[in-house]
Amino acid sequence: MSATLRDTKSVFERYEAVRPRLPVAARRTVTREVPSLLAVADEVDAFVFDAFGVLNVGETPIPGAAARLDALRQRGCAIRVLTNAASYQRDGAIAKFKRLGMRLEDDEIITSRDATLRVAGPRNWGIIAASGDTLADIPGGGIVLHHDSVAYEQADAFLFLSTADWDAARQEILESSLARNPREVLIANADLVAPRDYGFSLEPGFYGHQIADRTKAPVRFFGKPFGDVFAMVEASLPGIAKDRIAMCGDSLHTDILGAVAAGWRSVLVTQDGLFAGSDVGAYAAASGIHADWQVARI
Question: Which of 96, 146, 197, 284 has the fewest beta carbons closer than 10 A?
Fold first, then answer.
């Protein structure tokens, strides 16, 4: 957990500080609280779920989440999971949800890593990845960055997949290299933090915005709230109108803002994620980001 992003208030304030880099969405002002997603299932043809804070917290499934997916499917609703987790290759992401007990088809899972690699052509990448990542899906390959500053200088561009093994010292080397020689940085997970069993973990988006603040390097963010992943979900749901798709997430600035910008409906989930134990209404009012519906758990 970061000393700078230690609680919901500090995370919210950082998202507001980087708001100029996020999509612009039409303001909504009314959120209706409902007991579960079953209460709005007649108004929605496809439910799209964030993972952390909605289906799971860290490696722990949220009670009732898997059963709710099954119930919605039985009602005739399409199901998708849209996650900003980019530490896993696609088969690893699929395996994780199966471990969590979620009955999902492979093509129902869309990740920010998928979106990033769609545009990441073959280059000599400087790669920030988890230690167990084989990087078999990375075009052109590259070198995983550790503490050797020479490797940073040799990279043509940077691909930030995971913070699992990242630290402040390596971030300082990266920023220094980019200050001397600005190169493109692709942030494959736009989240600032993720809710864990122990608190919040810093995610690639946190470091990406820090790079954008401190250097002139061009930084591109992928995943919610940015449009690439929403377009990928829509392409997987042919024939379903935008206003019949509902994004279910725990973050105003990623899940809800992204859904509103895409023209979708939205559901803010409050019990287990970013706003657990907080007055979410006050945060929504302060940001001007309002979901259509609000539930404690799905």
Answer: 197
